[in-house]
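Technical annex, item 7. During the second reporting period the consortium partners agreed on a shared format for inverse folding records so that results from different sites could be compared directly. Each record opens with the tokenized structure and is followed by the designed sequence. A conforming record, contributed by the partner at site C, is shown below for reference.
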């Protein structure tokens, strides 16, 4: 019964705050108690201090409810704006016609002491009505690597982008820009990806192996961020003998990645982590590799 009365009281105060505003509702106890004192309904020794205590207690109670109401309003407003922003972002994408499908993404990374390589084969189809398209990849050097540090250490990323859809395997234009967290690589697919056509693109990256935490026995995280669904995806990471692994790497994933297969071949000293072909709707996921 007491709980019901308290809930009804809180709901009544919330309604008054919505109707009249928090400031007016807070002033109400002062007016009511002052009127009771004035007409003698509250009298006796220490009546003034008692009245003040009553007013303060009621004001604090109302203020707490008012803050809770305001917090709920702000949270609801933020959720609404977040949903609107997501909808508008999708509408902007649709408006600009960035309409293409990643039919298949196949990636193989090879880790070695001397260098590491990444080979990506991406089968893409641009839908009719889409404007010229550019895609980019970011090769991160890690949070402890500045551009100046990387250049001083001789870090160079070689990028080769080939349109395997052409008979001559034509090279595609590549633009590299150093950013604070690594090298941002823009591959210009304007010619290769004409609307309504499919193309398979080969992108190869190579950088010094000593820049990988794995080569020093530390954990490394491979993070992927997609802007659309990938219809078929497969990932393979191999570790050469000179990396010095002694067992199959431990692997943890986020973003709904199927359980990777981690193996170690004792005689050859080669380890590998493989994510079998799967379809991803997740916009962001990561694979954490721990060499133990």
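Designed sequence (site C submission):
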């Amino acid at each position: 019964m007491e709980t019901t009365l308290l809930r009804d009281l809180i709901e009544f105060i919330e309604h008054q705050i919505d109707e009249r505003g928090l400031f007016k509702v807070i002033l109400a106890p002062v007016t009511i108690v002052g009127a009771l004192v004035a007409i003698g309904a509250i009298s006796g020794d220490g009546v003034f201090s008692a009245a003040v205590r009553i007013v303060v207690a009621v004001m604090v109670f109302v203020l707490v409810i008012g803050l809770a109401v305001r917090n709920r309003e702000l949270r609801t407003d933020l959720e609404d704006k977040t949903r609107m922003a997501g909808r508008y972002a999708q509408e902007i994408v649709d408006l600009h016609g960035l309409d293409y499908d990643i039919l298949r993404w196949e990636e193989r990374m090879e880790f070695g002491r001397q260098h590491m390589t990444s080979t990506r084969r991406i089968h893409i189809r641009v839908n009719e009505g889409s404007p010229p398209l550019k895609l980019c990849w970011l090769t991160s050097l890690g949070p402890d690597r500045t551009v100046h540090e990387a250049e001083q250490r001789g870090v160079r990323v070689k990028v080769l982008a080939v349109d395997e859809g052409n008979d001559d395997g034509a090279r595609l234009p590549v633009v590299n820009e150093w950013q604070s967290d690594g090298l941002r690589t823009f591959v210009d697919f304007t010619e290769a990806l004409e609307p309504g056509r499919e193309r398979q693109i080969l992108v190869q990256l190579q950088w010094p192996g000593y820049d990988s935490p794995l080569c020093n026995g530390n954990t490394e995280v491979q993070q992927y961020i997609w802007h659309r669904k990938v219809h078929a995806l497969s990932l393979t990471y191999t570790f050469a003998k000179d990396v010095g692994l002694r067992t199959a790497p431990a692997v943890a994933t986020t973003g709904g990645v199927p359980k990777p297969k981690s193996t170690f071949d004792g005689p050859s000293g080669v380890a590998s982590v493989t994510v079998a072909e799967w379809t991803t709707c997740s916009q962001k996921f990561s694979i954490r590799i721990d060499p133990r």
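The radius of gyration is 31 Å. The CA atoms of residues 249 and 292 lie 6 Å apart. All partners now use this format for quarterly exchanges.
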